[in-house]
Write a structure and sequence with these properties.
The chain has 165 residues and is an all-alpha fold. It has helices at residues 21-31, 35-45, 49-73, 80-99, 105-131, 137-144, 148-163. The chain has seven helices and no strands.
């Protein structure tokens, strides 16, 4: 008389898998995600205008603070071009992250560009208020930075456009 494998002494029965390995691989590839993974991917894809605006404003404020510190404490001039580009990229990424799929790409890009240009403009205004109020704001910008201020605005806008894709 032959014993079945489950009845063989010393051997434990193997539990069956809940799903076949091929089903799990198909779900990972996009054939259908489990409930927890689907909820996580939906949360990351969903955004809103308010969320993108808040994240963009926060990134712009942080970038403006870095710009002011670099201009007034470190007395950078030419390096502010790189700072402005990084402000634009950071604001663009923040807006894109906050928007998810809720905003059209054109609207998302326009919002990012507007926030980045505003951040650089406000930073230059604060630089003027902290160090050169004896001149008018345009005279100060022309004498201290010259053509660098328009270049900073252009680089911030370009960075925001690239970062918000």
């Amino acid at each position: 008389m032959t014993q079945s494998p489950a009845e063989t002494p010393g051997e434990r029965p193997r539990p069956l898998l809940e799903h076949a390995p091929s089903e799990r691989l198909a779900r990972r590839a996009g054939g259908g995600a489990p409930a927890a993974e689907a909820a996580e991917s939906e949360t990351s894809a969903v955004g809103s205008t308010a969320r993108s605006l808040c994240l963009g404003l926060g990134a712009g404020a942080a970038g403006a603070a870095v710009h002011v510190a670099a201009a007034t404490l470190l007395l950078w001039t030419g390096a502010l071009l790189a700072v402005s580009l990084l402000i634009g990229i950071t604001v663009g990424l923040a807006v894109a992250t906050g928007a998810g799929r809720s905003l059209r790409p054109v609207v998302r890009r326009a919002l990012a560009v507007a926030l980045a240009v505003a951040a650089v403009t406000i930073a230059v205004g604060v630089d003027w208020a902290l160090s050169g109020r004896f001149l008018g704001p345009l005279d100060y910008a022309a004498q201290v930075y010259g053509v660098l201020v328009p270049l900073q605005v252009v680089l911030a806008a370009a960075g925001a456009g690239a970062g918000s894709r």
